[in-house]
Amino acid sequence: MAKLEISMLKTKRNYKETNPVAAALATLFLILGVFASALTGQFGDGQVPIWMLLLMIPALIVLMALKIANPWEKATVLRLGNFDRLAGPGMFWIIPIVEAVSSWIDHRVIVTPFKAERTLTRDTVPVDVDAVLFWVVWDAEKAALEVQNYTDAISWSAQTALRDVIGKMMLADILVGRDAIDAELQKIIDARTTPWGVTVQSVEIRDIIIPAALEDAMSRQAQAERERQARVILGESEMQIAASFAEASLSYVNNPTALHLRAMNMLFEGLKEKGALVIVPSSAVESMNQGGLSGLTALAQNFEHKTPVNGNQV
Questions:
Q1: 131 bridge partner residues
Q2: 118 and 99 in a common domain
Q3: Count of domains forming the chain
Q4: What's the confidence (pLDDT) of residue 45?
Q5: Taking the alpha carbons of 255, 258, 263, 266 in that order, is the dihedral positive or negative?
Q6: Other C-beta atoms within 10 Å of 66: how many?
Q7: Which strands form 73-79's sheet, in the order they lie side by side?
Q8: Cβ atoms 128, 117 nearer than 8 A
Q9: Strand order of the sheet with strand 126-137?
């Protein structure tokens, strides 16, 4: 993978050094030289093709001097080893041999993924954290002159900053405080990269991976916490129901008729269902003077469901 990336970088650099426009113009000059030499008969009599040699010089100059930068690029031009100017975007010329393009700076927003593997938190828990860095070059001159390879420097700076932040935080704070980690990382990385002409737009934590055993223990802890909350809510509900019953009982303290009516309604609701069985304490029946009423109700149900004997209804 690394060899492929190096090969791509070399191909891109060669493309920048010899762009298609310069190659086409150089080829055109060579073709004109060939035609001019042929028209003057310099190929047939053994003479040196003067026209071809003369037009080869501007062809080489165009090939070496004409450069093209994309709309999102800046070219760093050095003159005799000293910084001279930033060129581009578009087509520009350099003086061959005297001037050279040392680097091409991309001004687009660049995305750099980075991670911290097996990093210990403040409470000594190893975690793996994946993050994404969004950054942009705002000063091409500093990016070209102040650091050798600003892309690698930003990647390593982001990784070390992530390890530092993780080592200062508890695991619980890391799991619930991603926004705080993003803001802290952006502040630290931006402070390191500003002297290089690079600004950090945002940092986003993609994933936090903890050991499987710890994840299982945290799951059991969360389940136990939910069960505890459920029991607490059930107990509070029982207290509210008891309070409601106590408040309702005050309505029957000085009104025995209302209490008897309520008792009759409860018995009716319990006995109206077919096959229902209601058990009422004897003390409650005597206090409500409902013994005769319940007996008559039960007797009526027995007669209602009794089967015929010899074709006669009993």
A1: 114, 205
A2: no
A3: 4
A4: 58
A5: negative
A6: 19
A7: 82-87, 73-79, 99-106
A8: yes
A9: 110-120, 126-137, 198-209
Quote the domain boundaries for residue 89: 2-104
Give Cα 4 distance to the centre of its chain: 28
Note the residue count of the chain: 314
Query: pLDDT tens digits for 102-148?
Result: 889 999 999 999 998 888 888 888 899 999 999 999 999 999 998 98
For the whole model, what pTM was predicted?
A: 0.61
pLDDT of 297 above 60: no
CATH (domain of 183): 3.30.479.30
Which pairs from 158-164 meet CB under 8 Å and 24+ separation? 158/112, 158/114, 158/131, 158/133, 158/185, 158/189, 158/203, 159/114, 159/115, 159/116, 161/185, 161/188, 161/189, 161/192, 162/114, 162/115, 162/116, 162/119, 162/129, 162/131, 163/116, 163/119, 164/188
CB 260 within 8 A of CB 289: yes
The dihedral sign for the CA sequence 240, 242, 248, 254? negative
C-alpha span between 147 and 154 (Å, rounded): 10
Q: What was the pLDDT predicted at 277? A: 63
Domain assignment present for residue 309? The answer is no
